[in-house]
Amino acid sequence: MFQHLFAEMNEMLQEIVIHYPTAEGTRREELLCKYNLLRRLSDNVMDEWLAFAEKMNNFSQGTDLSYAQEEEPPQREAPELSMESFVRGQGYYKLLMYPQCIEQFKAVISRYPDSLSGRLYLAMSYLHQGEGETAWEHLNHMITLVRNRKLKAMVYNAMGCIRASQKRYPEAQELFGLSLQHDPSLPEPNVNLEVCRLKDGELQYGSQLVSLL
Q1: Given a cut of 70, is residue 1 above it in pLDDT?
Q2: How far apart are CA 31 and CA 20, in angstroms?
Q3: Residue 186's CB: how many other CB atoms inside 10 A?
Q4: Which of 58, 105, 171, 190 could lock onto 163 through a cystine, CB 3.0 to 4.6 A?
Q5: Quick one: three-class SS letters along 156-170?
Q6: What sign results for the dihedral spanned by CA atoms 157, 161, 162, 166?
Q7: Are 172 and 180 a contacting pair, CB within 8 Å?
């Protein structure tokens, strides 16, 4: 139900990002007003969502919902998901506000340093900011914790993309090879190995990894 709202907000933000640096006079003031509107709207969305999430949590804690879980066993929820910083960080990421997202998820991993989802949000935000080496640090931390072979393959692929973008092709090829060892069906590493061989082309970080966010 929020897709239409976020689509319009993202479109407005993209307009600001493209035109504000060169805008002058009334056009610059108009874009600044739009930016301030987005900031107020994003804060309001976050506040309303936090209030809703708190009510949901209070209800689930005080109500027996076991009947609704008959078809699959209950899964233990990661504790960081209920943090205000986590919820706000997710919102900032969807709004393409990566510096603000980074600040929120720094708070998350300061409390839960082994949070896979927190590390992934930070890594992808730093990548969007062009800070590949910092993104590498968070992915490298994740790789020691991941047990799922498919997820580990996706992380190795992303790490390989960082090294390839730095033109460190032998390291990148090794990482893409590790990715394929863990999941031979993953398509992106083979594409990226060819990019390394040609030293040209577009690296693919993996839509499945991004879809986890």
Answers
A1: no
A2: 6
A3: 19
A4: 171
A5: HHHHHHHHHHCCCHH
A6: positive
A7: no
pLDDT in tens, 57-73: 666 666 655 444 434 33
Q: Where are the domains of the chain?
A: 1-59, 80-145, 149-213
Which of the pair, 51 or 68, is modelled with greater confidence? 51
For residue 76, how many other CB atoms are within 10 A of its CB? 5
pLDDT band at 124 (very low <50, low <70, confident <90, very high): very high
The contacts of residue 153 (CB under 8 Å, 6+ apart) are 178, 179, 180, 181, 182, 183, 186, 189
Q: Do the beta carbons of residue 86 and residue 108 sit within 8 Å?
A: yes
CATH topology of domain 80-145: 1.25.40
Spatial contact of 46 and 88, defined as CB atoms under 8 Å apart: yes
Joined tokens for residue 120? 């992934």
Stronger pLDDT, 66 or 164, i.e. the higher one: 164
Q: Which two tokens stand for residue 17?
A: 């990002």
Q: Which two tokens stand for residue 143?
A: 């790789």
